[in-house]
Design a protein that fits this description.
Length: 97
């Protein structure tokens, strides 16, 4: 468990390594409990492998972070209408001088 908490992410176990440890526990549990089988194990293997691929691609692309923006956010500047409308009168007055 402490191995998973290493401050350096590259020193932490991969999803596959964690899976193998869990799989060993399940096999030992299985032997002790009269052949009980877990039907979801294939799905778990697939999920661990996909997570490993994602982890490796993330570690390899640390210089190119992926940003996800909220769909209602703005990435360019825009006029704030209330301030513009208030300053409009001032702008007109100063240009008439």
């Amino acid at each position: 468990m402490k191995w998973c908490w290493d401050p350096n992410p590259s020193e932490r176990p991969s999803a596959t390594e964690v899976f193998m440890m869990i799989n060993d526990w399940i096999e030992n549990f299985d032997k002790d409990h009269h052949g009980i089988k877990f039907s979801y194990i294939k799905d778990a293997i697939k999920e661990f492998k996909e997570h490993d691929k994602l982890k490796m691609s993330t570690l390899n692309n640390e210089s190119d972070p992926i940003y996800i923006h909220h769909p209602q956010s703005y990435s360019t500047s825009r006029i704030i209408r209330t301030l513009y409308d208030e300053d409009k009168e001032f702008i007109t007055i100063t240009t008439d001088l």
